[in-house]
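note to self: dont lose this again. the chain is below, predicted strucutre after it. 165 aa total, dont forget to put it in the shared folder this time
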Amino acid sequence: MADLGAALWAAISSSGAADQVGTFGKAVDYLVGQYGSASAAGRAIGVPQSTFRHWVAGRQPRGHRAGGVVAAARRDQARPLPAAGVKMTGRHLYGGTRPEQDRSIDVGRYLDDNVPEDLLDAYRDGATPDQLAEIFVEGISGAPFYTDSLGKDHWDLDSIEGMFG
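---
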């Protein structure tokens, strides 16, 4: 079981959305694989086809272009899914004498549409699990199942699924 931040961190880091393309060469290879050819990859990221073909052949780009290609591959690779499909699974902690209850809840209808993308951006910017939890909680602020009237979190989460593909 994990707290909200750790569950979010796990959801992002185990998905394809968090994979780091890394080097310029890996980014070029990824883009060619995604688009089927050097020409199509070049068009997709706004680079002349001949330039992209030179990069595939092993030439290094000039100036800041290498970073731009890596960034384009990362953007292409990471695709947050619509918020509507997000589910939380874990134990709902009622407190007092009521027993804990294993639950799986569809939180998508309560989650703001921009939350998956905001979480992914924050993760890439080096956000901590606690910062990810803050973004998520802000996105479901009106959900009646998540907090009590004092805003206390009553979940011990196993996972958050369906946010990243």
